[in-house]
Each structure stands twice: as structure tokens, then as C-alpha cells.
């Protein structure tokens, strides 16, 4: 404010002063809405948050010594803690409220899982220690493997894939190896048009040709169209069940039988296993391979985008081709790591090889096993039931204001799907999503699946309370009504987030991927203006 | 159940609004014959926090943790002291329990961290740019080979014998399915890295040469010479760094001519964790940006002109490009990248240089003492914090006996290269800042005892 | 000079045995802000219907198919720095590449301007 405020005017967010200027503060911060420069802008070469000796001896001769230390400013501990804490407050998180991203499954992350994963016996062991010194760690892998096999009704499990897409690749490489072992050439993988984009990507990566199969009016795989395409060139099908429309494929067993009848295999994308865990076993539906996103179904934290973990359960037909290493317990109670050298001794000489260094995402295994043991077989069933109940509650509470394309065909599974049909001209899903941010919620998944116009995919998960859902439903209802009425203020939402809509076109046309020392764009206070904090 | 907020009354009220009589009505699409009527038989039922913690603690106690014994393992996973503030900060719920930043207006915390991470990694590796991380070093290595194939339109990769054998196995596994040709070799027990053999293997069809720096035996290859030889034949040099702390002491691969530099970032902030989750580092020349795999965060402005960050160039990624995506990697290793970045920020470049000097000095002390053990010699003339010892007998058995005596005494080459006759007596030993003089003395004494 | 159109929304302007190829104004409008254009290598031989170029927007990457067979003579270098030319001037300055036609008879299967207009209106 440039002029005195004698009238005692009181600002509100985004307000203009009596003089007609935008209200700003000197610091650029607004109460608890805090700006934070880059660490490079506040750090210094002379600053360090770690006390270290400075050894005086000469290094061994012949090293290509660095001419200068890496050009990276440091920060002391108090400055570091403040930098990252201030940044953290610019994030939405499941700890703050519902995170209804369909197909991403953002549920509560129990803190016992974090505590257990940090026990020195898990966090501070080296992957190549002698196996006698890591029997407990191998025991975690073995016990989790046992649960995954039992919950899915499958024959074996590959534990090493590092995330869902890596698991998909693992499953397809098993299929490829099995086909090669039969001395056959089958080059085509069928993928329903509603599939996650990762499915066709993975199939192509594994060297298969991808063909799409259509959905029927009820949002399911068109069984007749599938059968018509089956033949000796088909290696298998990749199918998501429950599918990306949030629907269970009732013909799953018939699909599997048809694919098996022509000598193909069935890969199931298990991203949505959380909807059916304890209610049905994929092995009973004829599935040959399915990855399980531990970070989804078994609630290991997403951490702003990974790490994930994607073990793949395998049928009896595909188990011999699974990757190394894995664990095996012998009659003497010893747990062995089966690697290249002892694969034959453990009757696994046809495995397709190694997908990554070491033995998999151990830190995710300890968390997932802790979660599974906490719930038990009964609790996991309740997880699926509550997840499906919550999703159907959202579906039926909003279907009068938001078009729900498949609501007529029956209940949904763990996620409710809506479209943007009925919005006023010029209003789209994006406006509702950004409006939800102003309401204090993370938006749902938008524009996916592609088979629905302006798709909004809401996955509440089982860890939302009824009162929490009621608040979310009330907000989404009001936004739907505003989009139908053509409330133009939605176009500029969000208004109350740390940033307004960001220019993604600029970012992609002229990529700036590392800091090169340029000052920020006009409007951002420089560190010196912000002053010493 | 402590994680499930719905009460019995809630469930009944919600079923009423849905118009269902029981929750089973919601599962009608699951064929009745496949639907389970009760909990799966033979599996335990739910357990309280105390009981679960007790069970898991018992499993944890069956492991000999690195901090409870003299510890000298490396071979692609290194034990460094992690400042307490790192773990505190990554456990802030706003970082720990956020998703991939698809709604940038409410994910600036994660996005700014990724931008800072990319900058730190690029400066550390000596590359123009870096991505927001990959699964781990081994998968980053394979992705780099694929990328080199896209750039050069050639498909033969030459692997140095100094490349971590797990990395080489991952490459060979994947190449079997993509049809790439892999020219790999085993390491030889010589003081010099196999630069000459690698250079001799480069031909006109070679897309890339993959060289680990320092290599699996702890030696330091001459990257500048290999880069020049590769580039003369139209091939790229991919440098692989499994111990990034080394780059506080020795020159960054990008500054020596490497076109792509990948690495394992576990050393900083992440911890051992029995092998995962780890952190794939990936940097390259700016002109290759559109061929680069993995997520990227970029700077932009918001509608009010304020600086902000978004995920960008996502059209390379598989959720959009589907069968034409540049890589199989979808998730990155966000939380590990955060831990790495915080640790790096605490250190700063000068701190990293000092930490590297401490590591090297510890390794020098270890080498001096262990070489005095009768029958033991050190292969390396150059090294950072890891060397190869030559023992008078099969090192694998020695490591097992040492573990029984409470010393975690390195990684035998027999474990890494089972069945390779000439390597069986080799033992990889590492000393970081966590190793004390007392640890070294205990190790030397016990080693002498085992060999006697 | 004659201009032809494809059902995949490419245009080709033919002058003798040389053709200049781009995407139509309708196509750029559907794609939104173009952020990057991947162009074919000069000297490459391309077949009719081959995916020879990729046009990126923020959320999508769209293949551009060659309307005819030929040899690429030149790619539009201006697009490297200014991909937005495809938005602002799709059917002129935002051209993608020039080629020498190997089979001019392939042009017979393409639409003229009026037919393309009707085709777009029916979408």
C-alpha cells in the first residue's frame, strides 16, 4: 500500500486498496501463505549444515582431481529445515484432506509403517551382506510374497519390479519368454481402449505390436469383438480389472478362457486391486500375471511421485519364467536368495533374467507387510468393501447434478466416473477441478479415461469418513451447479492457492530445467528484498 | 479397525442412500462363484499396533545391521551418515503423502524441490541438464543405452568390464527383448581399468560405450580418452556413477566429455535399506532433452507472472505417448530425490568436497592397515573409497566367517561373479566416513585370524 | 500450384514434382498451443501414410502422416525456435517439410479445398 489507510479499510485475499491498487505485503508472504526462494538464492558456498573434518593428507597419485568443488551453495541446519518446511506448506497432501485421484488410490499412510521401515535391522542393512546376517530381511520378502500369493490365488510372485509400469514389463517379459520356450512366434498384445496409457507403452517396449479392442455401451470389454480377433498371432491380452471406468469386468473368466483357448496369456493391470482385495482372487478368474502397486493397495506413501513398488503375481504357467532374484525357504527354515548361481538348484533355470540391481523395493516391502498384518485377512476385505461403499455413495450423491455415464448399468467399484456433459458452453472439467482447489480439496483425476468426454474419476478410498465425504460432495455439487450456470469466476480458479494457473505452454516451448542464476520473473521479490529471516 | 473411519451406522446410512440392502449388492458384477464369502482361510486376522510392531521388530532383530558391526561393504550401495534433519523433513506429511504433482498450483513444494534436485544433479554430474530421477542406477543405465540408440540410430552397446555386474545383467536381460547388441566383458584383476579393451571394441555400429567411474573394482578409468575415442566413431559415452560422493573429489564425468551420465543416488540421504528404494540419477547434454527418459520439472510463470514450476515435456512419457513413449519408466523416485536434495543442500559443494576427502582418507587408512595382513595385497593404484583386495583363498568363505565373527567385511567377487575362476580371491572393501580406526583394527585382526 | 488435403488433416501444396506439407488450420485449433515439432530428416525417403513428423502440444503428441510418397528435401527450420508458427500460420509459414514426389498419381486420392471443408464440417 502506497498511501495511508486512514479509513481503517481491512484487506481480504485478492482485494484492492481504497486507492485502487492490488493489496500486497512488503514480504510477498500473506500470513501463513509463505513464499520461498530457491535454495541456490539463499545458500552460500561458505555455509554447511554438516560438521566435517578437513583431512590434510594428500590423495593417492593419479586421480583426476576436481579443479573446484561442485558449484552448489550450502545451507546450515536451521536454514535447511526452514527452507524445506516452508516449501512443504505449498503442497496438498492426504494428511491435509481427501485426495480423490481416481486410479491413483491416495489413502491414509499409517505411521506404524514408517516407524517399522526405519528399524535399523531393515533400514541399515546392505543388500550384499552374507545371507546368514539378513535372514530377517529375507523373511520380510518371503512373508510378503506369501500374502500376495494367497490374496490373489496365484502360484508365484516376482518381487523385484520397482513400480507399476516396471511390473507390467515384468509380466509381459514372462509371457514373451513362455511363448519363446514353446518355440512359437506370437507378436500381438490386445489392449482395451480404456486402458492406462502405460499398458500399450509397456507392450511396445517388450517388442509386441499393440491392437486395441473396443468397449461396449456398458463400459466393459466387448467380448464378441475380442473373440473375433483371437488367433494364433495373439500373445495375450492386457486388461485392467476393475477397469479404468471403475467397473468390474463381469466376463473376466470368459475372456481368460477364450484367450487361453488360442494359446495366449492374460495380463491383468492390478492398479485397482484395492477394490477387490479379499473379495475375489484374480487367480480364480484365469489371470496369468498381475502387478500389484504396493503404494496403492497396501498404502506405502507416494512421496510426491514415488518410489513405487510393483510385485507381479504369476500363474503356474508363467512362474517358471519370472525374474531373478527371489526368496525361497527350505525345510531347515533357512531363507535363500535365489540368484543366477543357484537358480538351477531351485528349479528356476528358465527365468528371463534380472530387472534391476539388488532385490527390490525393500523399504516398500516392510511398509506393505506392516499394513497387511495390521488389517489381516478380515480387515483387507473390509478395506475393499468400504472403498467400494464410499465410491458408490459419491456416485449416487452426485448423479443428479453430474452426468454419470455408466451409472445406469449398476454399481461402480472403488471409483465413480462422471463427464462434463451439461456444463454451460465454454465450461469444462478443468474449471471444476481448479474450483475444487479453492474449496480446499485436491481435484479428482481429470480427462481420464479417454473413453468418456471430460472425464472426472473420483476415488475416495476407504480411509475417508462419511462426514469428510459429505463435505467433499457438497463442494463438488456446488461446483457442478456453477459450471452448469456458467459462473465465469471458475475460469480463473484457483484463486486461493500458492500459485494461480501456470503457463505450461511456456514451460514446454522454452524448457528451463535447471537454475542458471537468472533472477526470477518480475513480481517475485528478490531474496534481498525479502530480507533476513 | 484403526484405519477405517466408517462406523456401522455410517455404512447403513450410506447403503440406504445408494439403495442397496447390503455391501454385497455392490459386488454383483463379480461372478458369484468367484466371490469370497469370508476372509481367506489360513491367513491371520487383523492385529493391533503393538502386536504388529512386535512381529516386525523380531524380524528386524534377525539382521546384523551395519551400524552394529565394523562395516566395509560397497559395490553399488554405500553407507554414509545421514544428518537427522533429512529424515525429519522427508516425513513431513506434505511431502510424504503427496502424489505426483499433476495439479501444480497446489504442488509447488514438490515441484520446486524437483527443480532444485535437477540443478544439483546436473552440477554434480557435470551435465547441462538432469531429470527428476529414475527407479535406480541399474534401470537408469539401461534407459541411457536406449536413449543413445535413439540419438545415434545404432543399436550396439559396448560395456566396460568395470560396470557393476547387476547393471550389466539388467542390460543383457532387457536387450534380449529389444534386439540390441550388447558387447560385455568381465573385469580382470589388474591395477588398470579396461579402457584399452573398451576403446578397441568401438566400431562404426556402436551407439554407446558404458563405463563405470569409479569402476566396480574401485579403479578410475580415463573417461576423457574413452569419450574422445567414442565420439570419433559417432558413439556416445555413458558414464555410470554408483558412488556420487566420489564426485566431491574427482572430476565430474560431464566435464570429461561424457554425453550421458547416470548414477545411483542412494549414497546421499537415502540409506542402505537392503537394496531399495534407491534413486536413479540421469543427466545429459541439453541438445538431447527431447530424447531423455523420465519426468522433468520446468520453470514457468503463473497467471500473475509469479515464478512457478510444472512437470513438462510429458509428451515423451508413456501415459500420453502410449506405444511411442521414450521409456518404460512412469514413476520416479520422488521421496528419495527429496532426501538426496536435502542432504546435498546441507553439504553444499564445499561440504561434499570435504566429505569426499574424509572418505578417501579413511580408505587410505584402511588400505594401509589391511595390506599389512599376511597374504593380503591391494589391487588398486587409484581409488576413491573402495578397493579390491587380493586374498590367498576364496574370499566368499572368508566374508561368511567374518560375518559370523561380527565383522561385515566387504563384498566378495565370488558373490558378484559366481563361478568365475580368476576372480574368486578378490574382495571389495569400502571405507566411508562412518568407519573408525577401531573398526579397521578389528577388521584387520579378524581377517588375519580367518586367513591364518 | 494446387493444394490437396487428407483426412488426417494434412495439406500438401504441389508445384511440379515438389510438394510442401503442413497441418491444417482446423488441426492446429484442435491441438491447442504447439510446443515442439519433430521434423523428418532431409534426404529421408517417406511413403504415403508414413508417420514422418510429430507435433507436440502440452498434453498430446500427434503424428503427422505424409500425404504422398517422396524424398524429403527440406524441413522448416524456423519451427525449431518458433513452433507457435504452426498455430498462427498453419497453412503458410507454419509448413513442416518439402518433398519431391515419387508418384504424383497418389494425389488423386486426396481432397480438394472444398471437399476438405465439407469433411471438417461433418465432423
Automatic annotation (TrEMBL), chain A:
<feature type="region of interest" description="Disordered">
    <location>
        <begin position="1"/>
        <end position="28"/>
    </location>
</feature>
<dbReference type="InterPro" id="IPR000192">
    <property type="entry name" value="Aminotrans_V_dom"/>
</dbReference>
<dbReference type="InterPro" id="IPR015421">
    <property type="entry name" value="PyrdxlP-dep_Trfase_major"/>
</dbReference>
<dbReference type="InterPro" id="IPR020581">
    <property type="entry name" value="GDC_P"/>
</dbReference>
<dbReference type="Pfam" id="PF21478">
    <property type="entry name" value="GcvP2_C"/>
</dbReference>
<dbReference type="GO" id="GO:0004375">
    <property type="term" value="F:glycine dehydrogenase (decarboxylating) activity"/>
</dbReference>
<protein>
    <recommendedName>
        <fullName>glycine dehydrogenase (aminomethyl-transferring)</fullName>
        <ecNumber>1.4.4.2</ecNumber>
    </recommendedName>
</protein>
<dbReference type="GO" id="GO:0005829">
    <property type="term" value="C:cytosol"/>
</dbReference>
<dbReference type="GO" id="GO:0016594">
    <property type="term" value="F:glycine binding"/>
</dbReference>
<dbReference type="InterPro" id="IPR015422">
    <property type="entry name" value="PyrdxlP-dep_Trfase_small"/>
</dbReference>
<dbReference type="GO" id="GO:0005960">
    <property type="term" value="C:glycine cleavage complex"/>
</dbReference>
<feature type="domain" description="Glycine dehydrogenase C-terminal">
    <location>
        <begin position="385"/>
        <end position="484"/>
    </location>
</feature>
<dbReference type="InterPro" id="IPR015424">
    <property type="entry name" value="PyrdxlP-dep_Trfase"/>
</dbReference>
<keyword id="KW-0663">Pyridoxal phosphate</keyword>
<comment type="function">
    <text>The glycine cleavage system catalyzes the degradation of glycine. The P protein binds the alpha-amino group of glycine through its pyridoxal phosphate cofactor; CO(2) is released and the remaining methylamine moiety is then transferred to the lipoamide cofactor of the H protein.</text>
</comment>
UniProtKB/TrEMBL annotation, chain B:
<dbReference type="InterPro" id="IPR015422">
    <property type="entry name" value="PyrdxlP-dep_Trfase_small"/>
</dbReference>
<protein>
    <recommendedName>
        <fullName>Probable glycine dehydrogenase (decarboxylating) subunit 1</fullName>
        <ecNumber>1.4.4.2</ecNumber>
    </recommendedName>
</protein>
<comment type="subunit">
    <text>The glycine cleavage system is composed of four proteins: P, T, L and H. In this organism, the P 'protein' is a heterodimer of two subunits.</text>
</comment>
<dbReference type="GO" id="GO:0009116">
    <property type="term" value="P:nucleoside metabolic process"/>
</dbReference>
<feature type="domain" description="Glycine cleavage system P-protein N-terminal">
    <location>
        <begin position="1"/>
        <end position="443"/>
    </location>
</feature>
<dbReference type="Pfam" id="PF02347">
    <property type="entry name" value="GDC-P"/>
</dbReference>
<comment type="similarity">
    <text>Belongs to the GcvP family. N-terminal subunit subfamily.</text>
</comment>
<keyword id="KW-0560">Oxidoreductase</keyword>
<comment type="function">
    <text>The glycine cleavage system catalyzes the degradation of glycine. The P protein binds the alpha-amino group of glycine through its pyridoxal phosphate cofactor; CO(2) is released and the remaining methylamine moiety is then transferred to the lipoamide cofactor of the H protein.</text>
</comment>
<dbReference type="GO" id="GO:0004375">
    <property type="term" value="F:glycine dehydrogenase (decarboxylating) activity"/>
</dbReference>
<dbReference type="InterPro" id="IPR015421">
    <property type="entry name" value="PyrdxlP-dep_Trfase_major"/>
</dbReference>
<dbReference type="InterPro" id="IPR015424">
    <property type="entry name" value="PyrdxlP-dep_Trfase"/>
</dbReference>
<dbReference type="InterPro" id="IPR049315">
    <property type="entry name" value="GDC-P_N"/>
</dbReference>
<dbReference type="InterPro" id="IPR023010">
    <property type="entry name" value="GcvPA"/>
</dbReference>
<dbReference type="GO" id="GO:0019464">
    <property type="term" value="P:glycine decarboxylation via glycine cleavage system"/>
</dbReference>
Automatic annotation (TrEMBL), chain C:
<comment type="function">
    <text>The glycine cleavage system catalyzes the degradation of glycine. The H protein shuttles the methylamine group of glycine from the P protein to the T protein.</text>
</comment>
<dbReference type="InterPro" id="IPR000089">
    <property type="entry name" value="Biotin_lipoyl"/>
</dbReference>
<dbReference type="InterPro" id="IPR017453">
    <property type="entry name" value="GCV_H_sub"/>
</dbReference>
<comment type="subunit">
    <text>The glycine cleavage system is composed of four proteins: P, T, L and H.</text>
</comment>
<dbReference type="GO" id="GO:0009249">
    <property type="term" value="P:protein lipoylation"/>
</dbReference>
<comment type="similarity">
    <text>Belongs to the GcvH family.</text>
</comment>
<dbReference type="InterPro" id="IPR002930">
    <property type="entry name" value="GCV_H"/>
</dbReference>
<dbReference type="InterPro" id="IPR011053">
    <property type="entry name" value="Single_hybrid_motif"/>
</dbReference>
<dbReference type="GO" id="GO:0005960">
    <property type="term" value="C:glycine cleavage complex"/>
</dbReference>
<dbReference type="Pfam" id="PF01597">
    <property type="entry name" value="GCV_H"/>
</dbReference>
<dbReference type="InterPro" id="IPR033753">
    <property type="entry name" value="GCV_H/Fam206"/>
</dbReference>
<feature type="modified residue" description="N6-lipoyllysine">
    <location>
        <position position="59"/>
    </location>
</feature>
<feature type="domain" description="Lipoyl-binding">
    <location>
        <begin position="18"/>
        <end position="100"/>
    </location>
</feature>
<protein>
    <recommendedName>
        <fullName>Glycine cleavage system H protein</fullName>
    </recommendedName>
</protein>
<dbReference type="GO" id="GO:0019464">
    <property type="term" value="P:glycine decarboxylation via glycine cleavage system"/>
</dbReference>
Amino acid at each position: 500500500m502506497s498511501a495511508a489507510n486512514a479509513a481503517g479499510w481491512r484487506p481480504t485475499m485478492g482485494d484492492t486498496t481504497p486507492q485502487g491498487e492490488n493489496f500486497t505485503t512488503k514480504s510477498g508472504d500473506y500470513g501463513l501463505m509463505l513464499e520461498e526462494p530457491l535454495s541456490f538464492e539463499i545458500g552460500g558456498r561458505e555455509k554447511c549444515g554438516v560438521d566435517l573434518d578437513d583431512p590434510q593428507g594428500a590423495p593417492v597419485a593419479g586421480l583426476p582431481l576436481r579443479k573446484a568443488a561442485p558449484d552448489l551453495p550450502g545451507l546450515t541446519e536451521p536454514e535447511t529445515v526452514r527452507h524445506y518446511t516452508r516449501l512443504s506448506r505449498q503442497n496438498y497432501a492426504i494428511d491435509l484432506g481427501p485426495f480423490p485421484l481416481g486410479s491413483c488410490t491416495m489413502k491414509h499412510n499409517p505411521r506404524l509403517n514408517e516407524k517399522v521401515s526405519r528399524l535399523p535391522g531393515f533400514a541399515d542393512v546392505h543388500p550384499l551382506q552374507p545371507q546368514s546376517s539378513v535372514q530377517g530381511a529375507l523373511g520380510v520378502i518371503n512373508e510378503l510374497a506369501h500374502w500376495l500369493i494367497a490374496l490373489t490365488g496365484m502360484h508365484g510372485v516376482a518381487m523385484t519390479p520397482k513400480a507399476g509400469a516396471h511390473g507390467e514389463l515384468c509380466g509381459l517379459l514372462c509371457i514373451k519368454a513362455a511363448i519363446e520356450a514353446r518355440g512359437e512366434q506370437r507378436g500381438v498384445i490386445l489392449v482395451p481402449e480404456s486402458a492406462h496409457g502405460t499398458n500399450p507403452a509397456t507392450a511396445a517396449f517388450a517388442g509386441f505390436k499393440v491392437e486395441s479392442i473396443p468397449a461396449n455401451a456398458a463400459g466393459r470389454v466387448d467380448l464378441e469383438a475380442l473373440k473375433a480377433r483371437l488367433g494364433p498371432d495373439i500373445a495375450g491380452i492386457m486388461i485392467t480389472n476393475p477397469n479404468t471406468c471403475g467397473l468390474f469386468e463381469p466376463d473376466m473368466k470368459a475372456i481368460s478362457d477364450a484367450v487361453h483357448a488360442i494359446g495366449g496369456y492374460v495380463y491383468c493391470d492390478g492398479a485397482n486391486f484395492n477394490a477387490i482385495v479379499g473379495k475375489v482372487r484374480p487367480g480364480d478368474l484365469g489371470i496369468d500375471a498381475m502387478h500389484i502397486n504396493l503404494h496403492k493397495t497396501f498404502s506405502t506413501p507416494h512421496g510426491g511421485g514415488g518410489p513405487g513398488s510393483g510385485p507381479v503375481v504369476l500363474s503356474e504357467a508363467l512362474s517358471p519364467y519370472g525374474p531373478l532374484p527371489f526368496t525361497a525357504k527350505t525345510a531347515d527354515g533357512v531363507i535363500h536368495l535365489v540368484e543366477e548361481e543357484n537358480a538351477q538348484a531351485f528349479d528356476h533355470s528358465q527365468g528371463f533374467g534380472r530387472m534391476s540391481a539388488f532385490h527390490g523395493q525393500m523399504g516398500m516391502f516392510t511398509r506393505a507387510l506392516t499394513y497387511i498384518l495390521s488389517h489381516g485377512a478380515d480387515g483387507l476385505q473390509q478395506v475393499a468393501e468400504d472403498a467400494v461403499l464410499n465410491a458408490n455413495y459419491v456416485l449416487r450423491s452426485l448423479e443428479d447434478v453430474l452426468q454419470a455415464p455408466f451409472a445406469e448399468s449398476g454399481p461402480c467399484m472403488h471409483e465413480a466416473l462422471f463427464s462434463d456433459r451439461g456444463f454451460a458452453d465454454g465450461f469444462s472439467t478443468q474449471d471444476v477441478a481448479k474450483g475444487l482447489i479453492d474449496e480446499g480439496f485436491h481435484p479428482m483425476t481429470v480427462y481420464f479415461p479417454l473413453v468418456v468426454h471430460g472425464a472426472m474419476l473420483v476415488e475416495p478410498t476407504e480411509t475417508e469418513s462419511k462426514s469428510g465425504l459429505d463435505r467433499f460432495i457438497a463442494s463438488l455439487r456446488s461446483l457442478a451447479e456453477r459450471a452448469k450456470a456458467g459462473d465465469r469466476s471458475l475460469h480463473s480458479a484457483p484463486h486461493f492457492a500458492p500459485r494461480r494457473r501456470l503457463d505450461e505452454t511456456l514451460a514446454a516451448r522454452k524448457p528451463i530445467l535447471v537454475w542458471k542464476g537468472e533472477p526470477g520473473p518480475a513480481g517475485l521479490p528478490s531474496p534481498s528484498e525479502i530480507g533476513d529471516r | 479397525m484403526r484405519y477405517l473411519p466408517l462406523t456401522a451406522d455410517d455404512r447403513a446410512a450410506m447403503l440406504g442412500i445408494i439403495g442397496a440392502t447390503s455391501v454385497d449388492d455392490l459386488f454383483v458384477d463379480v461372478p458369484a462363484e468367484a466371490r469370497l464369502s469370508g476372509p481367506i482361510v489360513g491367513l491371520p486376522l487383523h492385529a493391533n499396533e503393538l502386536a504388529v510392531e512386535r512381529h516386525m521388530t523380531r524380524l528386524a532383530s534377525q539382521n546384523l545391521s551395519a551400524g552394529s558391526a565394523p562395516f566395509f561393504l560397497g559395490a553399488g550401495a554405500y553407507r554414509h551418515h545421514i544428518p537427522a534433519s533429512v529424515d525429519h523433513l522427508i516425513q513431513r506429511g506434505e511431502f510424504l503423502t503427496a502424489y505426483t504433482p499433476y495439479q501444480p498450483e497446489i504442488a509447488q513444494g514438490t515441484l520446486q524441490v524437483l527443480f532444485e534436485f535437477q540443478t544439483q544433479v546436473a552440477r554434480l554430474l557435470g551435465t547441462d541438464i538432469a531429470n527428476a530421477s529414475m527407479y535406480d542406477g541399474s534401470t537408469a543405465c539401461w534407459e541411457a543405452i536406449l536413449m543413445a540408440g535413439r540419438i545415434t540410430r545404432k543399436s550396439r552397446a559396448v560395456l566396460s568390464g568395470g560396470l557393476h555386474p547387476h547393471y550389466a545383467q539388467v542390460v543383457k536381460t532387457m536387450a534380449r527383448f529389444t534386439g540390441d547388441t550388447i558387447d560385455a566383458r568381465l573385469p580382470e584383476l589388474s591395477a588398470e581399468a579396461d579402457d584399452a579393451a573398451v576403446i578397441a571394441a568401438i566400431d562404426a555400429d556402436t551407439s554407446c560405450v558404458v563405463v563405470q567411474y569409479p569402476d566396480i573394482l574401485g579403479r578410475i578409468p580415463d573417461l576423457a580418452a574413452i569419450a574422445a575415442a567414442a565420439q570419433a566413431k559417432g558413439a556416445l559415452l555413458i558414464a555410470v556413477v554408483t558412488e556420487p560422493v566420489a564426485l566431491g573429489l574427482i572430476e565430474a564425468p560431464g566435464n570429461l566429455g561424457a554425453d550421458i551420465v547416470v548414477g545411483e543416488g542412494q549414497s546421499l540421504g537415502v540409506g542402505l535399506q537392503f537394496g531399495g528404494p534407491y534413486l536413479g540419477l540421469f543427466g545429459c547434454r541439453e541438445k538431447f532433452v527431447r530424447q531423455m527418459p523420465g519426468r522433468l520439472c520446468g520453470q514457468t510463470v503463473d497467471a500473475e507472472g509469479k515464478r512457478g514450476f510444472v512437470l513438462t515435456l510429458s509428451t515423451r512419457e508413456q501415459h500420453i505417448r502410449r506405444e511411442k513413449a521414450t521409456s518404460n519408466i512412469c514413476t520416479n523416485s520422488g521421496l528419495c530425490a527429496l532426501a538426496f536434495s536435502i542432504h546435498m543442500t546441507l553439504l553444499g559443494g564445499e561440504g561434499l568436497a570435504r566429505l569426499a576427502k574424509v572418505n578417501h582418507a579413511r580408505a587410505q587408512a584402511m588400505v594401509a592397515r589391511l595390506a599389512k595382513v599376511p597374504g593380503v595385497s591391494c589391487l588398486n593404484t587409484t581409488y576413491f573409497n573402495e578397493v579390491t583386495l587380493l586374498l590367498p583363498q576364496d574370499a566368499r568363505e572368508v566374508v561368511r566367517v567374518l560375518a559370523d565373527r561380527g565383522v561385515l567385511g566387504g563384498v566378495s567377487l565370488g558373490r558378484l561373479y559366481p563361478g568365475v575362476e580368476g576372480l574368486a580371491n578378490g574382495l571389495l572393501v569400502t571405507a566411508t566416513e562412518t568407519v573408525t580406526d577401531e573398526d579397521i583394527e578389528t577388521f584387520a585382526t579378524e581377517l588375519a585370524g580367518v586367513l591364518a | 500450384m494446387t493444394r490437396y488435403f487428407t483426412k488426417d488433416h494434412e495439406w500438401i501444396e504441389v508445384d511440379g514434382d515438389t510438394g510442401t506439407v503442413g497441418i491444417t488450420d482446423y488441426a492446429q485449433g484442435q491441438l491447442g498451443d504447439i510446443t515442439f515439432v519433430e521434423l523428418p530428416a532431409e534426404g529421408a525417403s517417406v511413403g504415403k501414410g508414413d508417420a514422418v513428423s510429430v507435433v507436440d502440444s502440452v498434453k498430446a503428441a500427434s503424428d503427422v502422416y505424409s500425404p504422398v510418397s517422396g524424398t524429403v528435401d527440406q524441413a522448416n527450420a524456423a519451427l525449431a525456435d518458433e513452433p507457435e508458427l504452426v498455430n498462427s500460420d498453419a497453412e503458410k509459414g507454419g509448413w513442416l517439410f518439402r518433398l519431391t514426389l515419387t508418384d504424383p498419381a497418389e494425389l488423386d486420392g486426396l481432397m480438394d479445398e472444398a471437399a476438405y471443408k465439407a469433411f471438417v464440417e461433418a465432423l
